[in-house]
Amino acid sequence: MTMKQSAQCASKAIHSTSAIYHIAKATVRHGEQAVVNEMAEMEQAKTNASFCEAVKIAATRYEAIMSLSDKGAEYKAMSERLDRGAEDFQAEQALWA
Questions:
Q1: Largest Cα–Cα distance of the chain, in whole Å?
Q2: Which superkingdom does the taxonomy of this entry point to (predicted)?
Q3: How far is CA 8 from the centre of its chain?
């Protein structure tokens, strides 16, 4: 992965983490229904979809975002396994060099 790709990946991760944090925080403060309704209003303003369609889109996005929030530890473990695998591969390559 190039430095540019790494920087782009890091930037996306920061924005994604921020989105998850703010959605989770709003849910704790205002409840799931209020958050989904607000997301639906934003979606409706952006796309001119009917409110019903906007609610469906918002609810789907909300569920996806909250499932990412719940899976943080799982994804961290996956990342650590990949890192260990890369280190093992590099060590093996060094032995053969």
A1: 62
A2: Bacteria
A3: 15
Question: SS3 for 97?
Answer: coil
Q: How far apart are CA 57 and CA 61, in angstroms?
A: 6
Helices then strands, counting H and E runs in the chain, come out as 4, 0
Question: How far apart, in whole angstroms, are the C-alpha atoms of residue 3 and residue 59?
Answer: 36
Alpha-carbon Rg for the chain, nearest whole angstrom, is 19
Please state, in angstroms and rounded to a whole number, the distance separating the CA atoms of residues 4 and 81: 24
- 6-41 pLDDT, tens digit each: 777 777 777 777 888 888 889 989 999 999 999 999
Q: Give the integer Cα–Cα distance in Å for 11 and 73.
A: 20
Q: How far apart, in Å, are the Cα atoms of 83 and each of 14, 68, 90?
A: 20, 21, 11
